[in-house]
Amino acid sequence: MSALPTFSFNTTAEEVADVFADEIRGKNVLVTGTSLNGLGFETARVIAKYANLVIITGYNSERLKLSEVTIKKENPAAKIYPLILDLSSFASIRKAAAEVNALKGPLHVLIHNAAAFGTSASFASTVDGVETQYATNHVGPFLLTKLLAPKLVASATSTYTPRVVYLSSVAHGYGTGVDFDLLTNPKAEGYDAFKTYWATKSTAPLMAIELSKRSKGKINAFSLKPGLIFTASMENEVVSTIMKGTGALTPEGKPAEGLPWKTIAEGAATTVAAAFDTRLDDQAGAYLADSNVANDKRAAHSCDPDNAERLWTVTETIIGEKFTF
């Protein structure tokens, strides 16, 4: 067997999938947030070349259908299962999880790609009483993982350990970490949409660490930084305004020159590596960047075991259920 290649900044998702085609074959994979022109769609598209089944999710049925049709147009043999899922609603998550659990066979990989990205400058909370970004970026994924954990664990063999992948961001290190007060007591006073986004992205490395620890080897979880990518979310008026203010976007709303921009194909590569690179088998809880382990790129608050344990137990209280193995 030839040596595995070294991945880099410019490696694409398709290149990673092709390297690990044998690892992907026969696997059932769920990817959240799979609208066209996004990281989740690109992840699902390249995995669908080889996987047994790819479950794609979204809360908008028309956009979800468009993603399914687009993947199958390119690869008619792809097995795609579209799943309506609104991560800001516990009821929607429970309904979607029940649907997945009713499908034949185990689940090998769960990829938490979907995210709310400061799309409203003002404070908002969900029907379940959780601040919207925390709901979509952390609490919803936590509940979904909890409900699908038995189906994930069922995929384990003597040579395979199921994986859960959490997308973080370089922005996880911009702030001070999880705002436990806002998480547990949502309020408009002093609310800052972008700081909240940074804080929600700081949960991903913590969850990768804690899920790996609590499952005691039954699940390997990883978090990652996809990189700076111009996706549809940056065309949102609020996000665009803030990104222009940081200098990342030009006054016309285009990617500014001189910054380390990645294409969507390059950005999704690290997700595919986290899901299938066999070199990660003994590195559960690791943080990846440019498709390689980059634990040194984690902010201190996002690899603190006390923070990880506190976040887990606080989130259990929010969903009203214990998440144990």
From TrEMBL:
Coiled coil segments of this chain: none
Pfam families referenced in this protein's UniProt entry, alphabetically: adh_short
The UniProt record lists the keyword Oxidoreductase: yes
Keywords: Oxidoreductase
An example molecular function term from Gene Ontology annotations: oxidoreductase activity
UniProt xrefs under SUPFAM superfamilies: NAD(P)-binding Rossmann-fold domains
UniProt family annotation: Belongs to the short-chain dehydrogenases/reductases (SDR) family.
Protein name: Short-chain dehydrogenase/reductase family protein
Organism for this UniProt entry: Favolaschia claudopus
Organism taxonomic ancestry: Eukaryota, Fungi, Dikarya, Basidiomycota, Agaricomycotina
